[in-house]
Amino acid sequence: MSQAKRPKLLGRLAGKFALITAAAQGIGNATARKFAEEGATVLATDINGEKLKELDGVPGITTCLLDVTKADAVRKLVAEQEKIDILFNCAGYVHHGTILDCSESDWDFSFAINVKSMFFLSKEVVPKMIANGGGSIINMSSVASSIKGAPNRFLYGASKAAVIGFTKALASDFVSKGVRCNSVCPGTVDTPSLQQRIQAQPDPDKALKDFLARQKMGRLGTSEEIASLCTYLASDEAAYVTGTEFIIDGGWSI
Length: 254
Ligand code: NAD
Fold this sequence. Notes:
Shape: globular
Helix content: 40-55%
Structural class: alpha/beta
CATH architecture: 3-Layer(aba) Sandwich
Number of strands: 7
Bound molecules: nicotinamide-adenine-dinucleotide
């Protein structure tokens, strides 16, 4: 899709090329905008082409359809890029319920989006980063049932905990090649999908109150706050940081 012209920028990510998944809304969208503001050239991808169009014309951002569960599409897109300095694996899905509500196909679906997608993307991107002298991979995890137990987040917690292990393994294997890999574990963040989950509850007002009650700061996080952490991890300011999970949860897990 379109690429708007912009003046040469100085910023914390100047000269870097970033690939972001699930950038049409929520945290991925805020991060695409923040990375571009900080001087990166951003390839913002999502499965939702209509929503993605809202990024058309934002200086520094190019958009492209990508379903992260499709290995061939991932391979093709990554191969087309000259270099990738930053990979933000943001795509994820929240399954609601306990193990008793989880079918085998639920399990496969959640792990495909939340974990296997990171395998597809990272496997293609790591060789490019090594060839280029290094890079930063940021993987989206969560506090919910991977750092701290939370009711009805069985499958989500299992998959997001897997992200933390995936991240540490990748970080260990490529630390000597300049490839850093960290995960981000937000608490409850006010995004379109969170609002959908609240509205899907029998009593949405109570559902919102319950979400707020578990955040010790008494409010939801914003996508921009998570984007700021990702900007730090993507930048050379975080050159000594790898293999770590970053909790950003308004004190939920204290
Ligand atoms: P969201 O759920 O509002 O948006 C998700 C985006 O992912 C959508 O644009 C959707 O089109 C896209 N998407 C869905 N399936 C896809 C696929 N197969 N390929 C590519 N894109 C696909 O976003 P959000 O709430 O900002 O969540 C983003 C990430 O942050 C997720 O991994 C989520 O688990 C994680 N997270 C969110 C919260 C929260 O409270 N919102 C908390 C912790 C972690």
